[in-house]
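Limitations

Structures in this collection are predictions, not experimental determinations, and the ligand pose is part of the prediction. Treat each record accordingly. The example that follows, with zinc ion as the small molecule, is included so readers can see exactly what is and is not provided: the inputs are given verbatim, and the output is the predicted complex.
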Amino acid sequence: VIDAGGAALLPGLHDHHIHLLALAAARRSVPCGPPEVTSVAALATALRAAAQTRPAGEWVRGVGYHESVAGDLDRYTLDALVADHPVRVQHRSGHGWVFNTAALKAAAVGEDAPEGTEFDGRGQPTGRLWGLDSWLRARMPGGSIDLAAIGAELAAFGITGVTDATPFETAADVAPLDAAVADGALGVHVTITGAPDLARPAGPSLRRGPVKLVVADHGLPSFDSLRAGFTAARRAGRAVAVHAVTREALVLALAVWHDVGSVHGDRVEHGAVIPVELIADLAELGLAVVTQPSLVARRGDDYRRDVEADDRPHLWRCGSLLTEGIGIGFSSDAPFGDPDPWFTIAAAVQRSTPSGALLGAAERVSAQTALERLLSPLDDPGGRPRRIATGVPADLCLLDVPLAEALRSPDARHVRTTIAGGAIRFDR
Ligand SMILES: [Zn+2]
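Predicted complex:
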């Protein structure tokens, strides 16, 4: 028996799109982009400091790179910063890496490297590798990742369930996650998406959600190849979760949806640009949108500067979609967005960029609505918030204040106790 003292008891929060292994890796990585790093000099300092603390030959892993730091990075720029350690720096989109020369050598990236490896005019790799995470994983040292620490971090936010939206391709890719759920180290419920080819079952402890299909931000797939992904998912009796960040990607995805048809659980991941004229299509197809309000708070000024003027009025829609009856699920996309769901709630309410500008006034929602978008079931992110009732599993988040007070100033510090699957996972 826990005396809550009049404070609010909520269903445990759900993060509908996260990357657990990447988040664990990011915790032992060097930030290489804003806000921590905003110049070549700062990038050099950060990477050299990390290299100095490591024995010769050990990898340095950078994350969060953005072109505003030093333009289009390549191996030669990185070599000038750190040459005596293999260095790899991830673009903040999460879709590509830049390797220095030592890293290319250590990972044996050569002429036979697959598509996604960029070569210069002399047939030499530039160090840029896009969409090759699965291929690279087998060539990289595993390193120690601490999923128990990630589980503890999530529990302290009141989170009891997540969807890992990584497009895992093999059972080996998901094995560490499976083990961390099975032995209780992670301590939250995990549904994974996975690529169309991921064998079923991927692991005994992981629930399978929709199939993740990535419509690349750069270089769209053909209609037929995207359609093949949809039909493979349908053959397996599964919904699809389609990564669509750009206007073109969404148009293509919707064209395939109109052709193949939609099923319950289908969703657009991100929907960073949803032109107003496509909202009716989303509604007609009954698609949910899994969005990341924290990205507006973190990167809003970059969007205002870099996104094409035509797309700017349609960025990271939320309120306008809810008005049209479209289901929305909130998520972090951590490590690319902020894993703290209370930060997400505040960001959705304020829509304020780092410089304090307002991005999308019509997209603001109330704190209550924002919270509810984190309480929907994992298999129905746009659906109704879960309720606490006799007989439901004890996935609970106890606050230290009444709900109205927590919603006035959303903050993870109000999370007092988190119970997942009947076990106390966090107790302040
Ligand atoms: Zn993601």
